[in-house]
């Protein structure tokens, strides 16, 4: 079948204005949108800029907007689109560097701000620290994050104010806050209790819909709000 | 042009690079240069587990792990390095856990372990639970944990910088030349020690489990500076990639009791590996699948097999095998067990092929997966450049890019993640130690000259050749003739074809002439790396007149220890490839016939 991709273009070295280019190509129903971008780049326009690496949804490189919603280009098949007219745009809320490539630094700054690392200052035991399967399950969902930014850049609160740490950073804080082995939950909760922390979330659920790993993002944010309100993790 | 100075520079930010950086940065100023954001690295795609004889649910010993690895390598692995890795494995896994890695857990709170191909109880020959796992996302958890620790320890990163040249002055490491992708600007890094940790090169082949980024950058970088590549003919084809797509389906599926079924409904591995069956090592299973398909026993006569992990089938064969739980009760699984242990596999199958593995079998075929060969190193990660293992001062390599060699002719599942953390650690420690005792080597007057010359050759080419066409011709000839089974004529044809592609590459077309994120230019460079690697691989394979591990020849079907129990070294010289050989390091394991 033939599909038409209308792709956002911007190259600050050449273009004064952002614009769209339209490409038409043959596609199989089982082609990934990423496959189409690769073919356009290989056969029609080698200057097209986008990021990709693993091509099967685990590295988080290729979050883009496909017909208005945030998705990984490698996790959407042509047959999933329900249309042969596809609009491809960069994710919103981060500065566009070139075409579909955005500046990820503000996103990673927020990530780094929530202490996204394990803290336990006790001397480690000779073997592993023990953790029951139930304790491990408590934070399983938020260990799946691949830092693709699909959630954060789907969030209207983040669009309004880029100082908001955003859903992804909160998910990564959650992963440690609810880990029975970690000792820095209070410090992270304090960070998320600040002006640009969890209370910027207005439970719009775009983030949960955007997550390519099916993380219940809004729920995780809700658990943090609850912990802050109650002053405990139970 | 910008200049930087760090005592240690690590190239690549996957499992090996991050581990190396964490250790090097304790004692020396350290920077990491990576063409990707670190969390995009291919370590994150590893699924099933990291091998270590913790013995959490049954008897196990590092010595068993070492023997299994030697046997898995078809006796081409260096036994000193293998013993070292197996012994270090236990502490390496505990250390990851202490860094916060969220392993799956046993009911008693210890790290959960599952069986994996080729890992056995050395007394019974039966599969042993040695693979420490976090569901089917073990690589993801390792990569995230190491990156998290790097942030905690304030490791300096240069993200989205692409390394173009390795600077060697009078036989000593002096630094690197890199391009900043965001700006196109050149950067010179002066360094006392350089650790190459750039990963593999599975994009040489048509059907692959590997990321787009797996283009052999490190090996190509080294080859162009007169450093040899070791054992490049040994490339692993993983038995279970999703049909046509190549996306990896972890061996953990078979660890959990999944079986491979042919077009006649038979569990064919019973014939090829009567003791461990579907948990034989990967080379053995990939060959068996090819033989079955060749005999017309693919599913519906096609070039794939079914991998079945539905509870009815798992339980049926578990009963036949008499498989037991650690407490001695019969091994049985439910749909929710499968869902809990293999969530990503289920997601991949549903997303890409519309199959739910809990209710239906998965169509699979062998997929290009892992480079056993690479830059020669000793067990400390020091790069060794000749038949006598002479060390090149200040240069280190670790992870898939390196050939220690712990994997020999065939790697066991779970040993890649282990390799990353063990040899990442020691290369980081050794590099820092070296840096503390040595001075910087003066940079050459025009350090960027060689990189610029190569870049300009691509930029100013005639533009007659399409990159995609060149790449697909390379992938196709390599898959056809330098794949699971090989013969003289086919490999000779591949060598000739790759050399033709190398010539045609001089006319490669690059549309993008800009500076910012010129990925078109970088992809052309990556393709030139792949073509060099394809040539070295095909030439090394053609010369080895025996079958061993992943190098399997119809015309020389047997292993030949009298003539070929040795490592290949390949140099790119005078427009061709020069080969030499060096002995395998043996300790206590005498080569024996290999059966599972």
Description of the molecule:
The complex is a heterodimer of chains A (234) and B (596). Helix content of chain A is 32%, strand content 15%. Chain A is α+β, with helices and mostly antiparallel strands and 234 residues long. Chain A has 2 domains: 2-102, Ubiquitin-like (UB roll); 105-230, Alpha-helical ferredoxin (Fumarate Reductase Iron-sulfur Protein, Chain B, domain 2, Orthogonal Bundle), CATH 1.10.1060.10. In chain A, strands 2-1-5-3-4 form a 5-stranded mixed beta sheet, covered by helices on one side. Chain A has a two-stranded antiparallel sheet with strand order 6-7. In chain A, strand 6 (96-98) and strand 7 form a beta hairpin. The longest helix of chain A has 14 residues, at 217-230. The relative contact order of chain A is 0.13. The mean pLDDT of chain A is 97. Chain B is of the alpha/beta class. Chain B has helices at 15-27, 62-72, 79-98, 138-152, 217-224, 252-255, 269-272, 282-294, 311-321, 335-341, 343-353, 415-437, 449-459, 467-481, 488-505, 519-543, 561-564; strands spanning 2-11, 30-34, 50-51, 113-120, 127-132, 156-159, 161-169, 172-180, 186-196, 229-230, 235-242, 259-261, 305-308, 362-371, 375-376, 382-384, 391-397, 402-403, 566-573, 576-583. Helix content of chain B is 36%, strand content 20%. In chain B, helix 1 links the parallel strand 1 (2-11) and strand 2 (30-34). The model of chain B has no long low-confidence stretch (mean pLDDT 97). Chain B is built from 17 helices and 20 strands. Classes of the chains: A alpha+beta (234), B alpha/beta (596). The interface between A and B is large, with 63 and 60 residues.
């Amino acid at each position: 079948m033939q599909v038409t991709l209308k792709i956002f273009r911007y190259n600050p070295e050449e273009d004064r204005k952002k614009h769209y280019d339209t490409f038409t190509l043959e596609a199989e129903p089982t082609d990934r949108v990423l496959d189409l971008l690769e073919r356009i780049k290989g056969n029609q326009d080698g200057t097209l800029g986008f990021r990709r690496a693993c091509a099967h949804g685990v590295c988080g490189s290729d979050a883009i907007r496909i017909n208005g919603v945030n998705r990984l280009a490698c996790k959407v098949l042509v047959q999933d689109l329900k249309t042969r007219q596809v609009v491809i745009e960069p994710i919103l809320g981060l500065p566009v560097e070139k075409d579909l490539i955005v500046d990820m630094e503000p996103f990673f700054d927020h990530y780094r701000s929530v202490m996204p690392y394990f803290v336990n200052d006790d001397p480690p035991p000779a073997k592993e620290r023990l953790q029951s399967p139930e304790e491990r399950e408590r934070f399983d969902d938020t260990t799946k994050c691949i830092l693709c930014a699909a959630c954060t850049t789907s969030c209207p609160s983040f669009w309004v104010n880029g100082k908001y740490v955003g859903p992804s950073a909160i998910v990564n804080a959650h992963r440690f806050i609810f880990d029975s082995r970690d000792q820095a939950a209070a410090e992270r909760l304090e960070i998320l209790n600040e002006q640009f922390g969890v209370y910027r979330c207005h439970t719009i659920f775009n983030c949960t819909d955007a997550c390519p790993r099916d993380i219940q993002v809004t729920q995780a944010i809700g658990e943090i709000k609850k912990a802050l309100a109650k002053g405990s993790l139970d | 042009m910008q200049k930087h100075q760090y005592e240690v520079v690590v190239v690549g930010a996957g499992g090996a690079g991050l581990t190396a950086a964490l250790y090097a940065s304790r004692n020396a100023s350290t920077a990491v240069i990576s063409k990707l954001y670190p969390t995009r690295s291919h370590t994150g795609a590893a699924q099933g587990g990291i091998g270590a004889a913790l013995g959490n649910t049954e008897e196990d010993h590092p010595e068993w792990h070492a023997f299994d690895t030697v046997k898995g390598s078809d006796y081409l692995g260096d036994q000193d390095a293998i013993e070292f890795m197996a012994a270090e494995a236990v502490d390496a896994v505990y250390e990851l856990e202490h860094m916060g890695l969220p392993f799956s857990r046993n009911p008693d709170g210890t790290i959960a372990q599952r069986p994996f191909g080729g890992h056995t109880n050395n007394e019974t020959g039966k599969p042993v639970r040695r693979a420490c796992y976090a569901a089917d996302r073990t690589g993801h958890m390792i990569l995230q944990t190491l990156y998290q620790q790097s942030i905690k320890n304030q490791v300096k990163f240069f993200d989205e910088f692409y390394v173009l040249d390795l600077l060697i002055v009078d036989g000593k490491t002096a630094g690197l030349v890199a391009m900043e992708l965001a700006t196109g600007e050149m950067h010179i890094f002066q360094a006392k020690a350089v650790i190459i940790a750039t990963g593999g090169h599975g994009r040489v082949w048509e059907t692959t489990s590997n990321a787009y980024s797996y283009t052999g950058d490190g090996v190509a970088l080294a080859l162009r500076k007169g450093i040899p590549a070791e054992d490049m003919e040994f490339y692993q084809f993983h038995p279970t990639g999703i049909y046509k797509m190549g996306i990896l389906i972890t061996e953990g599926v078979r660890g959990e009791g999944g079986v491979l079924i042919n077009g006649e409904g038979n569990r064919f591995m019973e014939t090829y590996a009567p003791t461990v069956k579907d948990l034989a090592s990967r080379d053995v299973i990939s060959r068996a699948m090819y033989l079955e398909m060749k005999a017309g026993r693919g599913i519906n006569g096609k070039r794939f097999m079914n991998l079945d992990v539905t509870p009815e089938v798992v339980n049926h064969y578990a009963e036949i095998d008499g498989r037991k739980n650690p407490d001695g009760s019969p091994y049985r699984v439910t749909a929710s067990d499968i869902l809990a242990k293999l969530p990503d596999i289920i997601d991949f199958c549903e997303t890409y092929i519309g199959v739910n593995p809990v209710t239906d079998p998965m169509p699979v075929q062998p997929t290009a997966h892992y480079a056993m060969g690479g830059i020669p190193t000793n067990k400390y990660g020091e790069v060794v450049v000749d038949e006598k293992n002479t060390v090149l001062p200040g240069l280190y390599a670790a992870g898939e890019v390196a050939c220690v060699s712990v994997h020999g002719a065939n790697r066991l599942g779970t040993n890649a993640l282990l390799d990353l953390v063990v040899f990442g650690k020691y290369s980081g420690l050794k590099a820092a130690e070296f840096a503390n005792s040595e001075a910087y080597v003066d940079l050459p007057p025009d350090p960027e000259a060689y990189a610029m010359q190569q870049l300009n050759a691509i930029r100013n080419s005639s533009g007659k050749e399409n990159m995609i066409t060149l790449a697909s011709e390379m992938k196709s000839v390599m898959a056809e003739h330098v794949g699971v089974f090989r013969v003289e004529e086919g490999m000779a044809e591949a060598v000739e074809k790759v050399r033709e592609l190398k010539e045609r590459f001089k006319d490669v077309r690059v549309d993008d002439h800009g500076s910012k994120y010129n990925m078109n230019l970088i992809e052309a460079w990556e393709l030139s790396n792949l073509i060099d690697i394809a040539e070295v691989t095909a030439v090394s394979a053609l010369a080895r007149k025996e079958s061993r591990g992943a190098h399997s020849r119809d015309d020389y079907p047997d292993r030949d220890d009298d003539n070929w129990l040795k490592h290949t070294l390949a140099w790119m010289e005078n427009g061709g490839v020069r080969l030499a050989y060096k002995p395998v390091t043996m300790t206590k394991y005498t080569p024996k016939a290999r059966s599972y």
